From TrEMBL:
One GO molecular-function entry: ubiquitin protein ligase activity
The enzyme's E.C. designation: 2.3.2.27
Record keywords: Transferase, Ubl conjugation pathway
Reactions it catalyzes: S-ubiquitinyl-[E2 ubiquitin-conjugating enzyme]-L-cysteine + [acceptor protein]-L-lysine = [E2 ubiquitin-conjugating enzyme]-L-cysteine + N(6)-ubiquitinyl-[acceptor protein]-L-lysine
Record protein name field: U-box domain-containing protein
All copies of domain U-box, residue ranges: 7-81
GO BP, sorted A to Z: protein ubiquitination
Biological source species: Vigna radiata var. radiata
Pathway recorded for this protein: Protein modification; protein ubiquitination
Source organism, top-level taxon: Eukaryota
Biological role: Functions as an E3 ubiquitin ligase.
Length: 390
């Protein structure tokens, strides 16, 4: 807002003060003024438009959001932005910012400023901006900057902002550029960042893992991430220790579980223990997803053993059996209990001691789906049958 009057485009000046429009509003005559200036004009008893001198048949003022938007762009991009041709200036601005990031001569501070401007532009999901980012191949560049050797892990502010930009660009096009993370050194950097990074960095990396599970293009990457013992260990650690990012870590774990070939690695990495801890915590908005993830893992004998051996594993699932607010959660919990109670007598005993019979009866009388009720009846029958010798 401190730009000199000589550099402010005419379109962005208030006709009354000739200063930059801070809150542009438009009169019924089509003329735009700064709100404070035109309100003073009208409050003084003037019933005409200052520019056209037309009598105002309607004195109301309307916010000019389009002009406000253009001014915001100009304030961020400065001389790179041409208000007369905003689309052309956008692609030229992005091309300039990309060259800044690519240049070995640009300082870290200059690159950080460029990233800030890119982040602002990537917030707008208009079709033109989308095509600009795709055409200029920003995603591969940003991935290289974060996971390559161009930026040290000590420059966490830069990495944090670059990852935020990557998150915004992932939904725009092909996910194939993510495959560069399969490279040994880049994978090592990925693991190091999820271990040492800020909460914002950890969140972004968990969302990158989610994205890798969305497409067949990145199936191999999803497999490599899921079979990295250190990475799985760090994700479980986030679930266990990081209250703010635990939900994103649960999503990442669930995404890795989408591949059957990842599940054994997750169990070895103590995923069951981490998920049980999350479900038992006070902050458990993603409990339904967490329980569904446990259900996916129940195809593995090692996962069943881990659940039964967990001090609160069966009890925690019993608590989930009658979830009025989430029928899917109830169905998944019943399905998991069917599996472990069918194989382990101690799981049956613990479930009964934890009050599962009452919960199952309530579930069967609720508005749950026929599938859920059918599974509840099966579990009830199983628990009332003669005990097995295992």
């Amino acid at each position: 807002m401190n730009e000199s009057k000589n550099t402010i485009p005419l379109l962005f000046r208030c006709p009354i003060s000739l200063d930059l429009l801070e809150d542009p509003v438009t009169l019924c005559t089509g003329q735009t003024y700064d709100r404070s200036n035109i309100e003073k004009w009208l409050a003084a008893g003037n019933l005409t438009c200052p520019v056209t001198m037309q009598k105002l048949h309607d004195p109301s003022i309307v916010p000019n959001h389009t002009l406000r938007h253009l001014i915001d762009h100009w304030l961020q991009l400065g001389p790179l932005f041409d208000p007369a041709n905003p689309e052309t200036s956008t692609i030229e601005s992005l091309a300039y910012l990309k060259r800044t990031l690519e240049s070995h001569e640009s300082s870290l501070e200059t690159k950080l400023q460029a990233l800030t401007k890119i982040s602002l532009l990537s917030d707008e999901y208009c079709s033109f901006n989308k095509s600009c980012f795709l055409q200029l191949n920003f995603l591969p560049l940003l991935l290289e900057l974060v996971f390559g050797t161009r930026v040290s892990i000590d420059h966490m502010n830069f990495i944090e902002l670059a990852l935020c930009c990557i998150q915004k660009l992932l939904p725009l096009g092909s996910l194939e550029p993510l495959n560069m993370i399969k490279d040994g050194s880049k994978l090592a950097m990925f693991v190091l960042l999820i271990e040492k990074g800020t909460n914002s960095v950890k969140t972004s990396l968990c969302r990158v893992i989610e994205s890798a599970s969305w497409s067949s293009e990145t199936e191999d990457l999803c497999y490599i991430l899921g079979n990295s013992p250190k990475l799985v260990e760090e994700i479980v650690e986030v679930v266990n220790q990081n209250y703010e990012v635990s939900g994103d870590a649960i999503k990442a774990m669930s995404a890795l579980c989408s591949l059957q070939s990842n599940r054994e690695s997750l169990v070895r990495g103590r995923a069951i223990e981490g998920i049980m801890r999350y479900i038992s915590s006070e902050r458990r908005e993603l409990t339904p997803l967490a329980v569904r993830t446990v259900e996916k893992l129940m195809g593995l004998e090692s996962a069943k053993v881990a659940l039964v051996n967990h001090p609160n594993g069966v009890r925690t699932l019993v608590d989930m059996v009658f979830k009025v607010s989430d029928q899917e959660c109830s169905e998944s919990a019943v399905e998991v209990l069917l599996v472990v109670c069918g194989e382990f007598e101690r799981a049956r005993e613990t479930a009964i001691e934890s009050g599962v019979l009452t919960r199952l009866l309530l579930l069967m009388q609720s508005q749950s789906s026929n599938t859920t009720k059918s599974k509840a009846r099966m579990l009830l029958k199983l628990l009332r049958s003669e005990p097995k010798n295992n």
